[in-house]
Amino acid sequence: MSAEQFAHLSPAARRVQEVLTAGGFQCEVIELPTSTRTASEAARAVGCALGQIVKSLVFRGRESGRPILVEASGANRVDERRLGELVGEPIERADADFVKERTGFAIGGVPPVGHKEPLETFIDEDLLHYERVWAAAGTPSALFALTPAELQAMTGGRVVAIKQQL
């Protein structure tokens, strides 16, 4: 794909597509006329199961202030205590300003790649049950399909049991 082929995408979605292409991934960013800001909206928009949506959630180390990215299945809630154990410090949900400052993207459109800085990344093991998953691509209406193996390869993320047990 050439840069001209990405001209139809908004700047944030184009940036994600360029990162994917540069990384050798054949994923194609699409922008929809409807919102994909929430996992439920995204699943309805592309006609997949809620669990196939990759929620890119940013947390903050309480002591270090470092950003931590969790790629969670849309059907799951993250066990924040377990995440704290994995990173070695208590964590908290990052606010919108922190997310934008550290990733370059707004909540609701945070992709798994293309961030302003490298993020320690954890991948919900439940995503590996699907042949294909969908991730945000920079805006609340842009996303792309990929395999769980591609998600792991592009993020360098560690696959973990991270879902909150009810």
Automatic annotation (TrEMBL):
Pfam families: tRNA_edit (PF04073). GO terms for molecular function: aminoacyl-tRNA deacylase activity. Residues 36-152 form the YbaK/aminoacyl-tRNA synthetase-associated domain. PANTHER family: CYTOPLASMIC PROTEIN. This is Prolyl-tRNA editing protein.
